[in-house]
Design goal:
The complex is a heterodimer of chains A (176) and B (183). Helix content of chain A is 65%, strand content 3%. In chain A, strands 1-2 form a two-stranded antiparallel sheet. In chain B, 79% of the residues lie in helices and 0% in strands. In chain B, α2 packs across α4. With 183 residues, chain B is mainly alpha-helical. Chain B is elongated and about 65 Å long. Classes of the chains: A mainly alpha (176), B mainly alpha (183). Chains A and B meet through α1, α3 and α4 of A and α2, α3, α6 and α9 of B.
Chain lengths: 176, 183
C-alpha cells in the first residue's frame, strides 16, 4: 500500500503503540505495517520524541515550601468546611423558612383550615366525570400542622448548620 | 504508602490523632502541589490552593468512602480547589494574562532547548488539552486516575490526549523547522 499522508486512525495506532496499549495479533500486525512504511516510521519517531520530551519535562514532581506541612496543620481549624451552606445563603434560607412557618401558624390560628374537605371538593373532577370520588375526608388543620412541624425541624437544621456549628467550631479553634 | 497503611492513618485521624494527618500531608504534598501548579502556573497560588485542599480534605474525611483510594479522592479535591482558585483569579485579573507571560519568561530562561520547545508548543494547545497532557505525564498517574481527577469519561480523555499529542507533534515540528531556518 502506498501512502503519502498519515491518517488520524494511524496516528492513534502509533500513540497506542507508544503507550504500550497494543497486544497480541494487533501488535504483530501493526509492527508489520511499520516495517513496510517509511512515512509511518518517521511519524513514529516524531511522536516518540514528543513522548520522551513530555516524560522528561512533566514527570518530575514539584516540591512545595519546606513549611508546607506546618502551615496546613496550623490552619487546620481556621476555616470551617463542614457546612455546605454559606452563612449568607443559610441566613436567607432560615429567614424564608421562618416566614413560611409564621404565615402557616397565623393561618392555622385564624381557623382557616378547621373545616373538613372531601376529595370531591379538593379535585375538580366533577366537571369531567359523572361518578363522584369515594368519600375520603382530609383534615386540613392536621396536614398544615404537620407541614408547620416539618418547617420548624428545617429551621433548626439550618440554624445549626449556618449559625451554631460554625460559631462553636470557631470557639473551639480559638481555645486550641 | 499502601491502601492499608492509608486506612490505618485515617482511622487514627478520625479517632482524634491529628499527628497522623501530618503524616498523610507530608506523603502527598508533592503530588498535590504539582497538580495545583499545573493548573495555576503560579507557585505561591499553587501552594495556597494545595494547602487549602488538604484542610478541606481533613474536614471532609468522615465522609470519605473507603472503596476508593485516599490519593484519588484527595487529588480530586486538590483539582477542584485549584480550578476554583483559577476561576476566582481570572475574574479579578481577567485583563492581565500573567500566566502566559510568566511562562514565556521562564521558558526563555530554560537552559534545556527541548524543554523550551515543548513549552512553546504546549502554549499552542487549548487549556483543557494542555492540562490533560500535563496530568497524564505526571509520574504514576494512569489514564483512569486523570479521567477521575478531571471528571471526564475515560474514552473522551483518551481521545483528548491523543489529539493533543498529535497537535503537539505537528506544532513542534513546525517550530523546529523555523528554528533550523533561522540558524
Amino acid at each position: 500500500m502506498i501512502m503519502d499522508k498519515i491518517t488520524s486512525a494511524q496516528d492513534d495506532q502509533l500513540l497506542n503503540y507508544l503507550d504500550r496499549n497494543l497486544a497480541g495479533a494487533q501488535l504483530i500486525q501493526f509492527e508489520k505495517e511499520l516495517e513496510s512504511s517509511a512515512i509511518l516510521k518517521n511519524r513514529l519517531e516524531e511522536l516518540r520524541s514528543i513522548h520522551g520530551m513530555l516524560i522528561s519535562s512533566h514527570s518530575i514532581l514539584e516540591s512545595p515550601s519546606p513549611l508546607f506541612v506546618n502551615k496546613v496543620m496550623k490552619n487546620l481549624h481556621s476555616k470551617s468546611y463542614s457546612s455546605s451552606l454559606s452563612p449568607r445563603n443559610g441566613l436567607f434560607l432560615l429567614t424564608g423558612v421562618m416566614i413560611a412557618a409564621g404565615i402557616l401558624i397565623a393561618m392555622v390560628g385564624a381557623g382557616i383550615f378547621d373545616q373538613m374537605i372531601t376529595l370531591d371538593q379538593l379535585l375538580p373532577v366533577k366537571n369531567y366525570f359523572q361518578q363522584s370520588l369515594p368519600v375520603v375526608s382530609i383534615n386540613g388543620n392536621l396536614v398544615i400542622k404537620v407541614i408547620v412541624g416539618l418547617n420548624l425541624v428545617l429551621v433548626f437544621i439550618v440554624l445549626d448548620r449556618t449559625v451554631l456549628k460554625p460559631f462553636f467550631q470557631r470557639r473551639a479553634g480559638m481555645q486550641l | 504508602m499502601t491502601a492499608r497503611e492509608e486506612n490505618q492513618l485515617i482511622d487514627s485521624i478520625l479517632a482524634g490523632n491529628q499527628d497522623s494527618y501530618a503524616e498523610l500531608v507530608d506523603h502527598y504534598k508533592s503530588f498535590a502541589f504539582t497538580i495545583a501548579l499545573k493548573i495555576l502556573n503560579n507557585r505561591p497560588e499553587a501552594e495556597e490552593a494545595s494547602q487549602d485542599a488538604f484542610i478541606k480534605a481533613f474536614h471532609y474525611l468522615k465522609g470519605f468512602n473507603r472503596q476508593a483510594r485516599f490519593s484519588t479522592w484527595l487529588y480530586r479535591i486538590v483539582f477542584n480547589t485549584a480550578v476554583s482558585y483559577k476561576r476566582k483569579n481570572s475574574r479579578v485579573l481577567s485583563s492581565i494574562e500573567f500566566h502566559d507571560s510568566a511562562n514565556e519568561e521562564s521558558s526563555s530562561l530554560e537552559k534545556d532547548d527541548k524543554k523550551k520547545f515543548v513549552s512553546k508548543a504546549m502554549d499552542q494547545l487549548n487549556e483543557a488539552d494542555r492540562l490533560a497532557i500535563q496530568l497524564y505525564y505526571i509520574k504514576e498517574f494512569s489514564l483512569e486516575e486523570v479521567a477521575e481527577l478531571m471528571g471526564q469519561n475515560m474514552n473522551t480523555l483518551k481521545v483528548r490526549i491523543h489529539r493533543a499529542r498529535q497537535r503537539l507533534a505537528d506544532v513542534l515540528m513546525k517550530i523546529l523547522k523555523e528554528e533550523a531556518l533561522t540558524l
